[in-house]
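Input.
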Amino acid sequence: MVKLTDQNREQYAQSVLHALNASEIEQYRELFLELHPQDQLDFFLQLTKEQRAKVYEYLSSEEFAAIFQELELEDQNKIMQELHESYAQDMISHMSADDVVDFLSEIQESRANKIIDGLEDEDAKDIKELLAYEEETAGAIMTKEFINIRAASPVRDVIDLLRNEGPDAETIYYLYVINEKHELAGVVSLRDLIIANPDKKVEDVMSSRVVSVRTSDDQEEVANLIKKYDFLAVPVVTSQNKLVGIITVDDILDVIEEEATEDFGDFAASRGATDVNISAFSAAKKRSPWIILLMFFGLITAGVIGQFEETLEEIVLLAVFIPLIMDSAGNTGTQSLAVMVRSLATGSFEKKGLVNTIRREFGTGLMLGLICAVVLMIVVPFLYGSYLLAFIVGISLFLTLSIATIIGAVVPVAINKLKLDPAIASGPFITTVNDILGLLIYFTIATSLLQYL
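Output.
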């Protein structure tokens, strides 16, 4: 297998492309199939429709399946339109069940059913089983391509089994052991099997302390478990401890990316709209609920300013510092929110505890507020010639930043206690709340000291 470097990537790609355009089938197959799978994908994505038609002709459906299952859904849909029906059906049958499910779950149900009906009974059964699980659960992302072995089997027979069935399995580094009732009984590594006496039974070399997940477990919990134990794979069992599949670390990497994208979307109040491939209408539709909600919060902000209209009429200069108060409060609260969401996601929050975490964020807010207040008390008199104005702005900012960090830290914790994703305490939401509180503090202090200004 060739893994291209930056130096020879372009030259090698030109050789593959020349063989393809010249219809030199054997030369093309030799060059292309020697590429690293990711380089194969990169090369394929650069081809024209006419060139792709040659690829379908030169590669078997099994060989092309490895490329197709790595494509984005949008590209998969486009390619499926170009494939002959029999070729596409055979290609699907050579894909991993979990990759097939990822594709079928995103297309029309009638089209998905047609594809399933064309599969062999065993493959169709596995795919229907995976499709039946709720989205974003262990059952929905597990694969059925795994090898289970019997506790009573001799090691010699297991080695022979691996030679025959290993090429079709997702991974064979760890093998999961079942008893007569098909219940998960243990785990044994390939290394232990190789060095074990061939006449020994599997139960003599396996470990019965096996960590597993349930089909109903959330995919994010599975990701955290695999991260915690540094697993390459984890077995998936039913509520009756029946072994039904495995989840491998490469699938978990996709889950981590998906969850991070969701959290980022929640954090920015744009969940589901972070994909640049969706239309402007779809993006606007997904973003609009938060924008409308925040617009009404903006009206509350305007109402707060309106309540202190007399103060502003007396000292118009106070309006100059409104953006400063609002921006500083929002930014500080969002920083605390990011820290808390991240600590909840990684599990570090449980180690520190609520009191210690809140104390740290509050202390951070106090120091940030003190630093900003001191800077303002030096700069404002120089610019506007008023020490009292500097005091009002400085003390307002000190109190605002201190409270903003508390709000940014407490809100995601409260949401997490309600069994909701803490990331939905979006940055714009926290920013708006802190804006309102910052203005209340600022104008309350200014109004109380108005007679001295």
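The CA atoms of residues 12 and 373 lie 61 Å apart.
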